[in-house]
Amino acid sequence: MSKQTPEAIQEWIIDQICELTDLEASEIHPEEPFASYGLDSMSTVTLVGDLEEWLGLRLAATLLWDYPTIDALSVYLAELSAD
């Protein structure tokens, strides 16, 4: 696992949301709740699994509910990856 900045994590999450939806990156705002992007439960599980693989961390399935915005999640994950 390598240390990631909140900005790098944010960019990665935005790219993943674009792949999971029909949204463009310009339509995704880090301070908006994940729920506003129309992600279903399967999409959120996929996103958390992909984050685990990319960061080399074990993450809770409830991660997107615990940290409901890209901003909040990226800061949390950057702190985890620094440990």
Write structural notes for this entry.
GO terms for molecular function: phosphopantetheine binding. It is a single chain. This protein has 83 residues and is mainly α. The protein has a single domain, classed as ACP-like (Non-ribosomal Peptide Synthetase Peptidyl Carrier Protein, Chain A), CATH 1.10.1200.10. The protein has four helices and no strands. The protein is globular and about 35 Å long. It starts with 5 loop residues before the first helix and ends with a helix. The mean pLDDT is 93.
**Strand residues, percent:** under 5%
The CATH first-level class comes to Mainly Alpha
> What's the β-strand tally?
0
Low-confidence stretches: none
Helix content: 55-70%
Measure the end-to-end span.
10 Å
Main sheet characteristics: none
Q: Which CATH-level-2 architecture? A: Orthogonal Bundle
Query: For the record, what is the CATH homologous superfamily label?
Result: ACP-like
Q: What gyration radius follows from the Cα positions, in whole Å?
A: 12 Å
| CATH-defined fold name | Non-ribosomal Peptide Synthetase Peptidyl Carrier Protein, Chain A
Organism: Tumebacillus flagellatus
Protein name: Carrier domain-containing protein
GO molecular function, one term: phosphopantetheine binding
Keywords: Phosphopantetheine, Phosphoprotein
